[in-house]
Design a protein that fits this description.
With 118 residues, the protein is mainly beta. It has strands spanning 3-7, 10-13, 18-25, 33-41, 48-53, 59-61, 69-74, 79-84, 93-101, 106-108, 112-117.
Length: 118
């Protein structure tokens, strides 16, 4: 059984920073994880893409995240991070991590809530 567990969410003022983490536990090999990504879902909205990092280190960001968020990964620890800087009210959402494996299913975490206040 593979589980992804996010952490690092919380309440922060606009302009502040947070660092999210997502670690995989269970029967998953680090070599089987291809991409690691972050998505978010704001109240009343659909889940949307935030950032993704490939096994080789290449990164992609949503336009809303470019220049403010940074994704990174530690393959040995089956962990992905998302550094959130210059947070805005509209960044308030539940943030989910997703691991895509080379063979097998995709895995999602249960989410961590980020609330940005004015």
């Amino acid at each position: 059984q593979v589980q992804l567990v996010e952490s690092g969410g919380g309440l922060v003022q606009a302009g502040g920073s947070l660092r999210l983490s997502c670690v995989a536990s269970g029967s998953i090999s680090s070599t089987s994880i291809n991409t690691m990504g972050w998505y978010r879902q704001a109240p009343g909205k659909q889940r949307e893409f935030v950032a993704i990092i490939y096994r080789g280190g290449g990164e992609m960001y949503a336009d809303s995240a470019k220049g403010r968020f940074t994704i990174s990964r530690n393959n040995a620890k089956n962990t992905v991070y998302l550094q959130l800087n210059s947070l805005k009210l509209e960044d308030t959402a539940v943030y989910y991590c997703k691991f895509v494996t080379t063979v097998g299913p995709d895995y999602w975490g249960k989410g961590t809530l980020v609330t940005v206040s004015s």
